[in-house]
Amino acid sequence: MEQQKQPDQGPSNKKQTKGKKPDGPVSSKPSAAKSDAKST
User: Fold this and answer.
1) What is each CA distance from 23 to 1, 4, 19, 20, 36, in whole angstroms?
2) Looking at the record, which segments are called Disordered (predicted)?
3) pLDDT tens, position by position, 1-40
C-alpha cells in the first residue's frame, strides 16, 4: 500500500521536498526520500 501512495504523492512530494529542503520531509518521511533518490 505504501508503494501505491508513493507514486501518487511523488510529484507533489518532490516539489515540496525541493522547496522545503530535504531536512524536514526526509526526516519525517524516510520512504519519500528513498523514492526521490530512486526516481532521480
Assistant:
1) 25, 24, 11, 7, 14
2) 1-40
3) 555 555 555 555 555 555 555 555 555 555 555 665 565 5
Positions of E strands within 1-40: none
Q: How far apart are CA 1 and CA 31, in angstroms?
A: 12
Q: Which residue do the cell numbers 519525517 mark? A: 28
24 Ramachandran zone, left/alpha/beta (phi>0; psi -120 to 50): alpha
Instruction: Return the H-helix or E-strand segment holding 6.
Output: helix 2-8
Amino acid 34: pLDDT: 61
Q: In this structure, what C-alpha cell is assigned to residue 27?
A: 526526516
17 neighbors 26 (Cβ within 8 angstroms):
yes
